[in-house]
# Entry
Amino acid sequence: MAMLSTVEIMDILPHRQPFLLIDTVEELEPGVRAVATKNVTFNEPYFAGHFPGNPVMPGVLIVEALAQTGAVAILSQPEWKGKTAYFAGIDKARFKQKVVPGDVLTLETEIIKIKGPIGIGKAVARVNGKLACSAELTFAIS
# Structure
């Protein structure tokens, strides 16, 4: 059973469809880390053009899903309630395998540094335990 449902995630994040890219949060340590899932379905709007006849989830959206996972970890703290976490940087992003319809992405973001409203998260996305993407994400809370 999920720790947070989609509706509960929307209480923390300002994102809405079609740009809310996480479905559930399975683990949450506020201010420390979060593990979320994204059920990748053929109905995703980006598959119409990426790529016709060969649907692949865009890497930038995998990174965005990782960022949203990290934002849940940060914004679930009382002092940041109602705030928005914005990208301030993406470093060391690597893509190891395609993510396609039918995959379930497991997204894990660990907050490794925070100073005031700026922080860094170490993020990994996996499909069936295999690494699909990793990145270091810098965010600014406003």
Observations:
- The mean pLDDT is 96.
- The CA atoms of residues 9 and 72 lie 7 Å apart.
- The chain is about 15% helix and 40% strand.
